[in-house]
Design a protein that fits this description.
9 helices; globular
């Protein structure tokens, strides 16, 4: 697959607006490790290779373990994630799949509120919105991740 267009070059103003939201998210006070898990989980759901590549590298650089990255897709079954992380991951899944699941359940929201203040809940929701926006830009326009090399044709 070839890249359809470079959104960063074609519409720098639009990308700037998303970057401003991302800067807020980065500085909002939520734990960096939590934000990287949320970015990874949303990117897994959305199939965004570019974002998965970027955020796996960022998470590793920040000290995230390989096991937690590998098991993220099955976090429901793993004890490697804290209750706060589990609440954030459940919220991430519910918001990322909002059209197919009809939005977060009351139980998912209650779990979120058990571990996050009102401001943190809003900040987390904005963070989830931001990564979903990045996913849609990169998946929609087939942005190539840095280590991407086309597969050789089978002989």
């Amino acid at each position: 697959m070839s890249q359809r267009l470079n959104a960063f070059q074609v519409a720098p103003g639009a990308i700037d607006a998303v970057l401003k939201t991302q800067i807020y998210v980065n500085e909002c006070g939520l734990e960096h490790s939590l934000l990287e898990l949320v970015k990874m989980r949303a990117s897994q759901i959305n199939g965004c290779a570019y974002c998965l590549h970027m955020h796996a590298a960022d998470a590793r650089k920040a000290g995230e373990s390989e096991a937690r990255l590998y098991l993220l897709d099955a976090w429901h079954e793993s004890g490697l994630y804290s209750p706060r992380e589990r609440a954030a991951l459940a919220w991430t899944e519910a918001l990322t799949r909002v059209s197919s699941e009809g939005g977060p359940s009351d139980a998912t929201f209650a779990e979120l509120r058990a571990h996050f203040s009102e401001k943190e809940a809003v900040d987390l929701t904005v963070a989830i919105g931001a990564i979903n926006t990045w996913n849609r830009i990169n998946v929609g326009f087939r942005t190539r991740h840095p280590a991407d090399k086309p597969a050789k044709a089978a002989a």
